[in-house]
Design brief:
One of its GO terms (biological process) is transsulfuration. The chain is of the alpha/beta class. Helix content is 39%, strand content 15%. The structure holds pyridoxal-5'-phosphate. The site of pyridoxal-5'-phosphate has 15 residues, from helix 6 and helix 7.
Length: 378
């Protein structure tokens, strides 16, 4: 089914049916085929002259039949105009930033994925794009940070790793009242479109690390950008094909297959996380638990830094490993892993201390996850 047809259905149906009855396959395959061709034959010169109207394939950086099905599914899922599948979450973040130039000003949330910080620092130091940080609390304070050169506001909600939630609609309403041209961009990796649809709340661009929940099996690196509006989509499409960090057909197929179970997985991640939170809240060795109420991500402080090494070594089900959003539960220590490149003073100010742990609750049985944590903390 194409994007228009899919849009009439509920999210579970959209995803389960993604790629079925697609035009690219003449054999009636239920699962979308993986097209590994890097290039495509043309019929004649007329074929090339009408390329834009016909939307045929020519070269796989520009489009592949497999990636096309994935992109249309992603655009439908996020209620956007056009979606772009990229080779990593960082490549996805880079795509909208390719719209800006030296002297432009961006406001970002102060608590973000560590790699995003590293990239923004580089844009500042090497390319003269200026950044201001907002703590995500008062909209009036965000208002005061806007300047005539402000081109975008970048937020991540809930934030990583301290789980701050930002009201996307309130941000978009205020920012667009000041200047409708300022782009409101949201990293939707943690909640996914199952729990949050930023484009329907006034955001212009949504970004994902598809490495996390969208793929969900700890077996793929990918990124997604979804834009609202034809003009913005066209600009992004131009930069996408020009710079070329596009997702290969094989990975596009893997991501499309994983998306089919996204609603089920998210429900179960939430159910499991709620049970783990209930345990952590009454565990004497745990000082504080941060959980926004839905999704699979939990951050918590242990009382004593000295128990952490032994705890990591004792875990039998949960793995001490970076990343998140997969079927396997993972525990990280952001202070020395994901947020290591951030200034120490900044880490501590944000609450990213040596006793903060971040748990990605997987799809194992919650009983086993709770007993694993219990025995590791004992
Ligand atoms: C992992 C992550 C990224 C970066 O994505 P990669 O796929 O690792 O390049 C960006 N934002 C968030 C919130 C992430 O968790």
């Amino acid at each position: 089914m194409d994007k228009k047809e899919l849009e009439q259905y509920e999210v579970e149906t959209i995803l389960a049916q993604a790629g079925n009855r697609n035009n690219g396959d003449s054999h009636g395959s239920i699962s979308t085929p993986i097209y590994l061709a890097s290039n495509y034959r043309h019929k004649d010169l007329e074929d090339i002259r009408n390329f834009d109207e016909h939307k045929q394939y020519s070269y796989s950086r520009l489009e592949t039949p497999t990636r096309k099905v994935l992109s249309e599914t992603l655009a439908t899922l996020e209620h956007g105009t056009q979606a772009f599948a990229l080779s990593s979450g960082m490549a996805a973040i880079q795509l909208p930033f390719s719209l800006f130039k030296s002297g432009d000003h961006i406001v970002t949330l102060d608590d973000l994925y560590g790699g995003t910080f590293r990239y923004f620092d580089q844009l500042d130091e090497q390319y003269g794009i200026r950044f201001s940080k907002w703590n995500g609390k008062k909209i009036e304070e965000l208002h005061d940070l806007l300047q005539p050169e402000t081109r975008a506001v970048w937020i991540e909600t809930p934030s990583n790793p301290t789980m701050k939630e930002v009201d996307i609609a309130a941000v978009a309403d205020m920012v667009h009242a000041v200047d409708p041209k300022i782009l409101v961009m949201v990293d939707n990796t943690f909640y996914t479109p199952i729990y949050q649809l930023p484009l329907t709340q006034g955001a212009n661009i949504v970004v994902h690390s598809a490495t996390k929940y969208l793929s969900g099996h700890n077996d793929l690196l990918g990124g997604v950008v979804v834009a609202r509006g034809e003009k913005l989509s066209e600009k992004l499409a131009f930069n996408y094909k020009t710079t070329g960090a596009t997702l290969a057909s094989f990975d596009s197929w893997l991501l499309l297959r994983s998306l089919k179970t996204l609603p089920l997985r998210m429900r179960e991640h939430t159910a499991n996380a709620q049970k783990v939170v209930a345990y952590l809240k009454q565990e004497a060795k745990v000082e504080k638990v941060m959980y926004p109420g839905k999704g699979g991500m939990i951050s918590f402080y242990v009382r004593d830094e000295k128990i952490i090494d032994k705890m990591f070594k004792s875990l039998k089900v949960i793995s001490f490993a970076e990343s998140l959003g997969g079927v396997e539960s993972l525990l990280t220590i952001p202070y020395i892993q994901t947020h290591r490149d951030m200034e120490e003073s900044e880490r501590l100010r944000l609450g990213i201390t040596p006793t903060l742990l971040r748990l990605s609750v997987g799809l194992e049985n919650a009983i086993d996850l709770v007993s694993d944590l219990k025995q590791a903390l004992a």
